[in-house]
Amino acid sequence: MLLLALAAILPGLFWEQGTGTAPSLEKAGIKRIYVPAALADAWRAAGFDAVPVDDATRSRYQSAQPPGVQWQVNTASATRTPWIDANGWQFIRKPRAAWWYELPAGAAALAAAEAFAYGVDAVLRIDPADLEPLGRMLTFLRSVDGPALPALTNITVVDDNSPELDEVLNMLARRNLLFRVASAPDPSSDLNLRPGPDAADPVLFAVKARQQLTDERRLVRIYGSDTVLVRLAGDGTRARVHLLNYAQRPVEGLRVRVRGIYKTGVLHVPETEGAALADYAASDGATEFTVPRLEVYAVIDLNR
């Protein structure tokens, strides 16, 4: 596996409106767009990098669901529990696919961050009201872009090509159990999973997987939120932690534990100058720190 690859792919904007909206795009800092094929020449003449999209092009993209949280009433305790709608599990299962988001208002920035965190080729069709938030997120993504690092995982899930596997992977991802999907077990993994009859209950399957792995061997643990999902990448000397907050409200004081000793950590968050990690500690085989405030997305770069 190559430790360094080309820079990550930035998500693209699909824009159906005419060149009269060019000032709005320029204000948002967006110069590369996907447009209906009939509008491509006009947008190029307006100075934009316009990629034409026709029916054949659109058919090559698979559908990604709008990311977010559905709050459901827990009848046992009269409280609300989060159901996370996220796409990371299917990005992992189909790493070479290209993805298309059809997004409601308020979802564009999170969708862009999600696609970037997993390094997938993605196009976003957004509510026009989200143009400026998307522009700000793309500006941030460009600021932290660079050579892609390989994903760090310690669970291998053997793909049996069954439709039931989708929900199994979804449940594993929602518990921040970092896995890869392969055609055969990997002896270097801490845990190999081969879904069988247990996959009929994906929730129970994920619970058992966590018990088998044990918390001590988890690569990343999150404290203080049920709506933050993590992706971890690294090359042995450095690691990058991606934190995605699927709720539409900030998380205060998010505590993160990463397996391994890293001497330094740098926090990157959108639109925040001088953001820094708090209560940083590296000992006993793990590194812990607090993200003071997580809005939508944060990147933490760790170095040994």
Task: Describe the protein in words.
By secondary structure, the chain is an alpha/beta fold. Helices cover 23% and strands 35% of the residues. The protein has helices at 22-27, 40-45, 55-58, 88-93, 108-118, 131-144, 164-174, 202-213; strands at residues 12-14, 32-36, 49-53, 61-64, 68-74, 79-85, 98-102, 121-125, 155-158, 179-182, 191-193, 220-223, 228-234, 238-245, 251-259, 264-268, 278-283, 286-294, 297-303. It has a six-stranded parallel beta sheet with strand order 3-2-1-8-7-4. A four-stranded antiparallel beta sheet has the order 12-15-18-17, with no helix packed on it. Helix 7 (164-174) crosses helix 8 (202-213). The longest helix is centred in the middle third of the chain and has 14 residues, at 131-144.
Q: In one word, what is the shape? A: globular
User: Which class of secondary structure composition applies to the elements?
Assistant: alpha/beta
Mean pLDDT across all amino acids: 92
Biggest β-sheet: strands ordered side by side in the sheet = 3-2-1-8-7-4
Q: How many domains would you count in the coordinates?
A: 3
Task: Give the strand tally.
Answer: 19
Strand percentage: 35-45%
Provide the succession of SSEs: EHEHEHEEEHEHEHEHEEHEEEEEEEE
Helix count?
Answer: 8
Radius of gyration (Å): 20 Å
Instruction: Tell me about the largest β-sheet.
Output: 6 strands, parallel
Return residue spans where pLDDT drops below 50 for at least 5 consecutive residues: 1-7
Straight-line distance between termini: 21 Å
Helix content: 10-25%
